[in-house]
Structures are given as structure tokens and as C-alpha cells.
Design goal:
Length: 138
Amino acid sequence: MDQDAQISEILQTCKTIALVGWSPKPDRPSHRVAAYLVSKGYRVIPVNPGQAGQTALGEVVLAKLSDIEGPVDMIDIFRRSEEVGPVVDEAMARFPHLKAIWMQLGVEDQMAAQRATMRGVSVVMNRCPAIEIPRLGL
């Protein structure tokens, strides 16, 4: 499957997204992307330990992935590349039916991606769903 087809499939089948690194600041990319995804009908669960307990996007901001109750289809990671590995490992441990790990623009971790892929989880790196959705006409 080519990358556009993979991205299209992820964006069409993943409806619940945990967004790690969400910011309450409207000028931050994580804030804007989360709001965009909600506007497109996705359920976005914001994850940020410094903002835990606040309400954003109709959800309570949680401190960590393991605080999320219920299934999550995709993890969208707004963290530095060197911080991705533990996030991916926590996501795979917490969500046995996880479909996708998405690393935002400028974020890549080949080792974490390999671990996820070996578990059957799709991985997208160095891309943004808010760019891909209109580009692919979704």
C-alpha cells in the first residue's frame, strides 16, 4: 500500500484520537490541529500532564495515556522526537487494538515506529493530519 493510501485509510477508520502534547494556547500547532480534527468529526482526547483536569474540545484533559478509559484508534504525538519512544510504548501497552501512531511534522523515531509496525500498528511520521485531510480530499 502506498503512503497516501495508508494515510487515507488511517484517517477514514480512526475516529478516536489521543493527542499527546495538546496545548491550551490557540497559537500552538497542537491546539489548532486538535480543534481542526474535532471540526472534522473526530473525538480528540487531549493529553498534557501540566493541563490535566481542564476541559478542552468537550473532553477532560488527561495527564497520560494510561488515564484514558475506553479504546483509542490513533495516537497523535506533538512531542520532540527523543520523547516519542516511551509514548509509543505506553500507547501499545494501554490500547491493545490501537490502529495508528501518528508523529507530527518534524517528529520521527524509527525505532519506535519499528516496534509499533511489528505489533501491526500503522505508523505515520513527519506529517500532519490537518494537512493530509484536505490534501487527500477526505
